[in-house]
Amino acid sequence: MTTTYIFGHRNPDTDSVCAAISLSYLKNALGFKTKPRVLGHINKESKFVLNYFGVKEPEYLNNVKVKLKNVSYRKGIMLKESASIKDVIDYILKNKLTAIPIVDENKKIKSLITLKEIAMLFVAQSTNTLTTNYNLLIEALNGKEITRFKEEFNGRLLAGSYQSETFMEEVDLNENDVVIIGDRYRVLKYILEKKISLIVLTNNFTLNDELLSLAKKNKVSVISSPLDTYNTCNAIALSNYVKTILVNQNPSVVYENDYLTDFVEMTKKQGFSNYPILNKKNECLGLIKVTEVGNYEKQNIILVDHNELSQSVLGIDEANILEIIDHHHLGAIGTNVPINFRSMPVGCTCTILYDLFLENKIEIPFSIAGLMLSAILSDTLLLQSPTVTKKDELAAYQLAKIVGEDINDYGYRMIKAGSSIVNMSVDDVFYQDFKSYKIGNATLGISQVITLDFENMQESLPLYVDKLNNLAKGDYEVVTLFITDIMKNGSYVLYNTSAKEIVEESYNINDLTEGYFIANLVSRKKQMLPSLMDTLEKRS
User: Fold this and answer.
1) Cβ contacts of residue 94 below 8 Å, gap of 6+?
2) Residue 324 pLDDT > 70
3) What would the pLDDT profile of 513-530 be if each residue is shown by its tens digit?
4) φ and ψ at 224, to 5 degrees?
């Protein structure tokens, strides 16, 4: 069963993290195979929650782009360098290939050889050496064993086609030589007496008792072939180890974790059709052909707490979205097929998950109840946010009963643990809960920080404004940072300088200044975002 990844948005908050873990638990209890993931570093509040309820932090998911290991490539297609040339040709033809990876005993790539290269080598040069073994010779020649004293052969290949006197007078034989010969008694006796490495007899010829005895005495290996001399010479060349003809010993290779899109771009530049595919140990896994990469398996994913492309994982357009569970406005994610989409106007994704546990009659364990309670309290600011609904309140109180916690006491400890900005950089504070939105041709960025330490931030306000102005030089028309104090029930607002009038108009403020406190403004979803969106839409 393929694993499905469940995750929330980038810059994950407590609801995003806890919803991914809780939904993964529910899906697995229903018989699915899922794993929770996060798309970024989790914040202090989320770490507090996970530690408090003893839950492991989800692993980081970089992207869901299709990798070559997801493509239906030719797995296991390769031959060892100790295979014969005949083996290679037969294998290529049998599997309808145009090339094949050649590997060593440890599956490390030695070459990529094509049928065309083999043919060109045989046309360009004659074979006058033999490097092979006894079994490969028997196979290539369809031969019969007469005597067998050596397994490996590495020497000159000669045809005994000279006149007897000429051969015996002019051919200086040594112990590594291999001679192809027919029914020639005098030459055979001479060869056997020279104690050469191997004799290949043609036309099914065999040795008489005298010559056989001499072969055994001098430990000369002998094979009988049914072929004539010409065809024996051609066939025996094919018994050579393929490593003797390798020309491309540094082939272009790819790795199973390479991205398909990168592979396609690379092949356009290189122009090859076949590539050995390797694992991280540089072991060959098989062959991937450019013409066969259209069939691949997409990563199954489920989204929680978001449905905007800009907030989701990289490569989402290459993934298979099975389901979305969210409590925000509808974004721009589209799918090719119908999916399960659960969207409700509640204050927290985990409120929806609470209903799903009840609907599926799955008991909520202590740790999962604690995570979902924490998410609801975080997203609704201890049930004080304008986004809170009766469903949020009901779910929170029921979950609090399971974990035996007082909502206000636990919620305050959670918020306090997560709201400290001591020793945090401007980027750490800004990006811990930053989201971007597309409104017409304009891009809006909103970061929200919930903290009780605004006084400690005041000296650094110019640095935050510089951060916003730098972002605005790029794609953003408006970038804001809302510093929310739940005890004062309001937020301090920072903005890029060029967006001052837009922010003033959005919240009906005259003479706005950086760090201005807006009372009763605590919800990004219901208060901060809608007002800015309305203003930008009017101006578009």
Assistant:
1) none
2) yes
3) 999 999 999 988 889 999
4) -105, 130
